[in-house]
Amino acid sequence: MSYEVTGKTVLVTGANRGIGRAIVEGAIQRGAKKVYAAVRKLDSADSLVEEFGDLVVPVQLDLESKESIKAVAKTATDVDMVVNNAGVLELASPLSEHAARSLEHEMKVNVFGLIHMAQAFAPVLKANGGGAFVQLNSVGSIKAFSEGATYAASKAASYSITQSLREVLASQGTRVVSVHPGPIATDMTSNSSMADIAEPPSLVSDSTWESLLEEQFLAFPGSMAKQMGEAYRSFAENVIDAKTPAA
């Protein structure tokens, strides 16, 4: 079912900068009634409040803290849509000395954080009619890059969880979208080898809202992502979108 953000209440994690900020701006431009800007430090959302006033409500949320996620879910009981954008990237190859430590941190935020967000907000979305749950993944979830091997591994796990959430949350009328950007011009990618080809965060915001309107599970924002998405399309249609055979 097509999903319109107009008149809806949205929660965005990592809302203070980069892709998260672009998603907040996109939601408001498209008529969102309210946007909860979920950030680790409340004052980091001050500029959003200055720009959009009462449309933006900052809330403290840390994906490494299950308790902070649960606390926000108890406060933001009017949420119609969750965009879980926040994540971490640590540059590490499989042979890097810090690879295991980096993977442990990325899994804690990018995977366990996603699970805790889904568990906390699924009941809220259900109570409000279903709504939508959007997860920011990465092209790294389907194609590993050596300098970001541990990040890609965490995003592959996140993508797997997102696929399962799509199936589980369908029963309560919640739409799930998995967004897979290529290199995007954010602080996260500024020190990577792909910084020179990074594209604007607004591409991710636009692709997210278009995917909801067009009833698409997968979104591939950016030039590299679109190319990979086209190559991946047949597999997605025949495997990812296929119904699981009955046991």
Short description:
The chain has 247 residues and is α/β, with parallel strands linked by helices. It has helices spanning 18-29, 46-52, 66-75, 99-127, 149-170, 202-213, 223-240; strands at residues 9-13, 34-39, 56-60, 81-84, 132-136, 175-179, 218-219. The protein has 7 helices and 7 strands; from the N terminus they run E-H-E-H-E-H-E-H-E-H-E-H-E-H.
H/I helix tally: 7
What gap, in angstroms, lies between the N and C termini?
27 Å
Integer tally of domains:
1
H/E series, N to C? EHEHEHEHEHEHEH
The CATH class, by name, is Alpha Beta
Largest sheet composition: 7 strands, parallel
Silhouette: globular
Question: How many runs of DSSP E, i.e. beta strands?
Answer: 7
Low-confidence stretches: none
Identify the CATH homologous superfamily: NAD(P)-binding Rossmann-like Domain
Mean pLDDT: 93
Label the structural class.
Answer: alpha/beta
Rounded to the nearest angstrom, the radius of gyration is 17 Å
* Biggest sheet strand line-up: 3-2-1-4-5-6-7
The residue fraction in helices comes out at 40-55%
CATH topology tier name = Rossmann fold
CATH architecture descriptor name: 3-Layer(aba) Sandwich
Strand content: 5-15%
